[in-house]
Amino acid sequence: MKQFFPVLLLAATVPVATFAQTPPATTVSATKGPGRLSGRVLDATTQKPVEYATVALLPATGTVPLLGGTCDADGRFELRDLPTGAFRLQISFVGYGSLVQPVTITAEPQNLGNLTLTASAQNLAGVTVTGERPVVETKPGRLVYNADQDASNAGGTATDILRKTPLVNVDGEGNVQLRGTGNVRILLNNKPSALLAGNLAEALKQIPADQIKAIEVITAPSAKYDGEGSGGVINIVLKKNSLQGTSGSVGASGGNRNQGLNGSLNTKRGKVGLNTKLSGFRNLYPFKSLTERTSYLPGGGTGQLTERTTSRNQGRGGYGQLELTYDPSPLHSFTVSGNGNLYRNSTPQELFNQYQGQPRLDTLYTRDILRQDESRNFDLNAGYTRTFGEQQPRREWSVLAQHTNNRSQGQYRLDQFPTTELYGGPVEYREASRNLARNLETTFQTDYTHPFGEKNTLELGAKHIGRQVRSDYTLDTLLVSRQTDFARSIPRSNRFDYRQNVLAAYGTYNFSLGKKYAFSLGTRLERTGIAGEFQNEAGRFQNDYLNVLPNLSATRTLRKDGQTLRLSYSRRIQRPQIYFLNPYVNQVTPSSVSFGNPRLRPETADLLELGYGTFSEKGSFNGSAFVRRTGNSIEQFSAYNQALARNETTFGNLATVYNYGVNLYGSWKPLKHWDLSSNLSADYTRLYSTVLQGTNSRASLYMNINSSLKLGKTYTVQGYGGFWTGGVQLQTRYSGGVYYGLSAKKLLLAEKADLTLGLNNFLAPGREFRSTTTTPDFVNYGSFYSYQRSFRLSFNYRFGKLEGGQRQRRSIRNDDGKGSGSGGQQGG
């Protein structure tokens, strides 16, 4: 580790030093004159602006630019004080072919209108392959990790990709954090998905990396987004083609951790398009854990607990998607789509338990446990988008609808033996539990964008989300010495119904002052109505609340070569999802039980962020500093039940949380075929609870590096690595870890196929993650050992031919709910 850290630090600082030495793009030795050129650069296929494309004025012969500049975020540029005469105008951007055209400059200003760039492409034996993009792109308001440009992702899962995404951290148990907080909403193609509504850590393992195009990280969303909480939005963009023609792919991967098959078929003929995906997979993630707890008893005594668990987490399932598009004219677009998945997970466990200190409650036993989970999910989407032609290119109206269904069933059975050895004697106790949870969600949304002049726009929208959640749970017990069959435990069986309705409206005005300043002023109004009840008790409750969520940002262009400075403020709301609300008591490990709190209230967060970004032909740099305050924060907390000698964990609106952080990201091309990038994040978190009268705080550091090198036309080698130093919760401090990997890719069959070999975390079988929970009642030391050494071999084959004609389409984003600390939003 001591040797690894300086290498990473050097990689992070190299891009910064590079940009500090890069001269402005407004070059060289041109004589000033009265001429002026302006225009707008668009993507030839999508007709969308090419943000920050490079514009250079060249002499009629020769290649040394006389003057240069950069387009703004709307693709517009203007070159002033130009000499008169005959010249050439060159426009270029990464991933596009350069445009060079002759221009004659006079004393009169000239507007060249729309100029188009075509994505770099080459036809490989009937397959059109789009030109390469950088692995990470810095765009206004977001960072984009182009996963399909990273060879080491082949054969992996969405979890592997997120671990390498800037600003994102995934720990050993699959928990996702963004800039130091787990309060983050993950979307699939800009929409919530029933696939992600259950246990998110498991769901991310179900999405093949070979079907993922990019990961978008949005840290300060505008008022158009739902009140998704303090962390921000992570959007997983799946590969899709809306180009004329037919294309597709098939792939297979095998390894010691996961195996899978996947395929896609995309076709468009005239006004009708069809996109399909299908995948199947298996995975294996063994682990072992240790818990050592000291409980403080009345009278000064202590209770000592030791628990050891060995487990093999085995999963299998499949995912499918079908999308139909219909474009009757250039001004109208319809989309209907559906996707679904089936996932089964089996987790056999062996548990050793020993407790000493309270003779009446002392225990010594082993348990053979089999936990099985199954989830069935589907999404149905429909949308209509209306545009208004070249006369009003930024005017747009859309209507969208979505229905999602998440059905999950979890169950376990256990046999308990009164000895230190499993199966060492007769069974003394048996237990069986079942939890059936269902989450229905229906959304209607409309958005309208109206332009004022060339740069100002007004965005308006309204939305309704209706959620219905049910959790039906039962538990049966069998004490062998007293019973002949299982009997229902009434106190531990119940049914919970929960309904939530959200009405929202927003307005955002985007405008510019001069050529250097751009502003966005927005407000979102959300009303939430909640009602819940228990079947077996008088447990009805209701909670309604109204939230005003302002959003402000100001951007200043520092120089013409793309340097920008952005200051933003936003307030977001975060509602608890079913994982936090479900009162089902999980007693697989009876000494440490957990359950939800159906009476949780939402939390609100205020975020102030200052960001700086720049780029050049050799790379890019993005830096930001932020302060975030979260009030009424939903936090996990534990208490010791002395009567039952067990630790009970649930959630409450317990704390005020302050986060202070700095994020630095840089990419660099030392050579034409060599890419380097690195991300460094540092933050300080302080939690204070008046309810528990406690404070916890910690400084954390996260860093990664990614390097890719092309060897000739058909070989690519890549390496990546990173570390994080751990984090803090209200009562808990947990350790960090290190990850790394190497891969090599070979293009085959006239570059229509590729074969990739990847090795990850290969220097050790696994890694231990530690945590310490401290309360007035007990101190708990835990360790979790995850077997992470893996290898995989992947093969992908592409076919078909594409011809252009892609359109942008609107989609629903439901990103207002807080998921579980383990990424879950499940029903039990």
From TrEMBL:
Any one GO cellular component localisation term in the record: cell outer membrane
Protein's membrane topology: Multi-pass membrane protein
Recorded superkingdom: Bacteria
Biased composition (Gly residues): 819-828
UniProt keyword Amino-acid biosynthesis present: no
Sequence segments annotated as region (Disordered): 247-268, 295-318, 806-828
Composition skew (Basic and acidic residues), residue ranges: 806-818
UniProt biased composition (Polar residues): 247-267, 304-314
Compartments reported by the entry: Cell outer membrane
Stretches assigned to the TonB-dependent receptor plug domain: 144-233
Keyword 4Fe-4S: no
Chief subcellular location: membrane
Gene3D superfamilies: Carboxypeptidase-like, regulatory domain (2.60.40.1120), TonB-dependent receptor, beta-barrel domain (2.40.170.20), TonB-dependent receptor, plug domain (2.170.130.10)
Name of the protein in question: TonB-dependent receptor
Organism in which the protein naturally occurs: Hymenobacter metallilatus
